[in-house]
From TrEMBL:
Keywords: Membrane, Transmembrane, Transmembrane helix. InterPro entries: TDE1/TMS. Coiled coil: none annotated. GO terms for cellular component: membrane. This is Serine incorporator. Pfam families: Serinc. It is a multi-pass membrane protein. The chain crosses the membrane at residues 48-66, 111-129, 141-158, 216-242, 249-267, 309-329, 398-416, 436-459. Its main location: membrane. Belongs to the TDE1 family. It is found in: Membrane.
Length: 465
């Protein structure tokens, strides 16, 4: 009887393990056959999900693990391992001067550990994707396991010198590079949104008849109204809630004046700009100003500083995590990494769909215009399927951008590596450095947008399209 029970249990366990492995393989495995060349977007969703995991691990290390690895906690009395971990997590923090600052420094090192593990992961697989472009979409179960081993391994590594100061300085450089890259993306998005809706209006006029494109033009005006009204309301609220000191007042006033200047220049002097792009940049500038004011560590300038209710903690963690993930996902879009989409019209057998979707086709390594859906492709029009691994050679750029994002979020969660009395888990990145980096990002974004408006007039001989 016992043999039958053991056999039944073994059978159930085998079925469970097989089903679990199949589920993991379907969720994290290769989603396309090897006959389809990889594009720059290969593995993007799985990569960003791994980035999300690293952010969660960083927050756990910063606010759950680091406070328990302090000299005055019970962990210090755990034989061997307790003393070793405390020394590892507080190494390089002796200049902090107080127990509170020592815990801040130790928490920062927890963020560096998770960020460093993700940074090394994306660097390794960026090199792998450069040598083998299909690497971005293969063996994701093993990749997640490897990343978790990286995170566990960093727990036992001393801060000094790997995290403090080597990786800290690397992350500062990488985070600064990504901050500039992010502002360029936002300006590009503002223009592309307007161009996309104008193109849809023109298409509706041509396909559906005269006057049918007005709905898209009305949508543009409605979006402009919503963004401008929201920006005005936001600036008024900033004056009400954060106008208690000269620094915040200066930030808010500069935001208002420069946004107004950009809009006036766009309306009066620029032929390349659009009202929707100005509305987008005004709303984005207002958002950055609000976030910068909320990072002010001066209680007189930030009345919300120090509130630690459960609601604030949950909201703060959700906002921090979601904003980091949205940054990672939007910054790794196919156009951002300069790559092409994988050809969805190529089947597993290598045949080409006779009625392709209207859009760009990769023909002999370059883009072409697809025929109308009613016209079958001739033999000489069919896209060539190549086995050359260098045909799609942009997939490594996805890992490069995610590596920069790892540096950036490490700086965002630690106030750019500063050790000072600042926010708490409800607002984890309150610091003077974070405030100035955010407002500097706003100034860079507005300056770039203003330059795109005046550059065609200042340099008429150059093509800025």
């Amino acid at each position: 009887m016992s043999a039958l029970i053991a056999a039944a249990v073994s059978g159930v366990a085998f079925c469970f393990c097989t089903a679990t492995a199949s589920l993991c393989s379907s969720w994290c495995g290769n989603d396309k056959p090897s006959s389809i060349p990889p594009g720059a977007n290969s593995g993007r969703k799985r990569s960003v999900l791994l980035l999300a995991l690293s952010v969660v691990v960083a927050l756990i290390f910063q606010y759950a693990v680091a406070p328990r690895l302090q000299p005055d906690r019970l962990t210090a009395y755990t034989p061997y391992i307790g003393e070793y971990l405390i020394n590892a997590w507080t190494a390089g923090c002796t200049q902090s001067g107080s127990a509170e600052l020592l815990q801040v420094c130790s928490g920062n090192s927890g963020v560096y550990r998770a960020s460093f593990a993700a940074f090394i992961f994306f660097c390794i697989f960026g090199l792998a994707a450069y040598c083998r472009p299909t690497a971005n979409r293969e063996a994701w179960v093993a990749k997640y396991v490897l990343f978790l081993f990286f995170c566990i391994g960093t727990v036992f590594i001393s801060n000094d010198p790997l995290f403090l100061p080597i990786y800290l300085n690397i992350a500062r450089v990488g985070g600064s590079v990504f901050s500039i890259f992010q502002q360029v993306i936002l300006v590009d998005v503002a223009y592309n949104w307007n161009e996309s809706w104008l193109a849809k209006a023109d298409k509706a006029e041509g396909d559906e008849g005269p006057g049918k494109g007005k709905k898209w033009l009305a949508a543009i005006l409605a979006a402009c109204a919503i963004l401008f009204i929201g920006s005005i309301v936001g600036i008024i609220l900033l004056y009400i809630y954060f106008g208690g000191c000269s620094t915040n007042n200066a930030f808010i006033s500069i935001t208002l004046l420069v946004s107004l200047l950009c809009t006036v220049v766009q309306l009066k002097c620029s032929e390349s700009g659009s009202l929707l792009s100005s509305a987008c940049m005004t709303a984005y500038a207002t958002y950055l100003c609000g976030v910068a004011c909320s990072k002010n560590s001066n209680p007189l300038c930030n009345p919300k500083l120090g509130e630690t209710s459960v609601g604030n903690i949950i909201l703060g963690l959700l906002l921090a995590t979601m904003s980091l993930l949205w940054t990672g996902y939007s910054s790794t879009a196919n156009k951002r990494v300069g790559g092409r989409h994988e050809d969805e019209d190529i089947t597993q057998s290598g045949e080409v769909d006779e009625t392709p979707k209207v859009g760009g086709l990769v023909v002999d390594g370059s883009y072409g215009s697809a025929p109308t859906p009613c016209e079958p492709l001739h033999e000489d029009q069919r896209p060539a399927i190549t086995s050359d691994p260098t045909f799609f050679n942009n997939s490594w750029k996805l890992n490069a951008i995610l590596g920069l994002i790892c540096c950036w979020y490490a700086m965002a969660l630690t106030g750019w590596g500063t050790v000072e009395r600042r926010g708490n888990i409800a607002n984890p990145d309150v610091s003077e450095v974070s405030m100035w980096m955010l407002i500097a990002s706003q100034w860079v974004a507005l300056s770039l947008y203003l330059w795109t408006l005046v550059a065609p007039s200042l340099c008429p001989g150059r093509d800025f399209s």
